[in-house]
Amino acid sequence: MSFAKGLLVGSLLGTTYALLTATITGPKRQQAVAQYLNTLAKNSADVQQSAVQLQNASQNMANELKTTAVTSFSNISDAVQAFSFEAAPRIAQIEESIDRLTQNLKKLD
To answer: What does the pLDDT profile of the chain (109 residues) look like in tens digits?
Structure first.
């Protein structure tokens, strides 16, 4: 059973039970039932409106992520390439220093 059907059945059963066991009679009961049904209708409309807002927000976030992710990935890729290009000479110098140190250590042994 879906949530909406369960909500409707529960509301009807609750209303019926309340009508049968209530100590209020006549016009007061009619007012209470009318107020209850009005509140139920308003709350149902609020839930529906919130669901629509959630769906719209989810769709907007998905669209934003698609555009942002592509741009961000491109920027990160460019930054990595630039870093690799700039770091290559330094890495070569470090490797040469390591080779010289290794050779010097071998001579000491």
So the answer is: 688 888 888 888 888 887 778 777 778 878 887 898 899 899 999 999 999 999 999 999 999 988 888 888 888 999 999 998 899 899 999 999 999 999 988 888 6
Give the Cα separation of 14 and 10 in Å (integer): 6
- Find all residues with CB under 8 Å of 32, minimum gap 6, and list them: 22, 24
Give the Å distances, CA to CA, from 15 to 2, 40, 66, 72, 101.
20, 11, 48, 56, 89
Q: From residue 11, how far is each of 7, 28, 31, 49, 62 by CA, in Å? A: 6, 20, 17, 20, 36
| Spans of all domains in the chain | 3-108
Query: pTM of the predicted model, to two decimals?
Result: 0.44
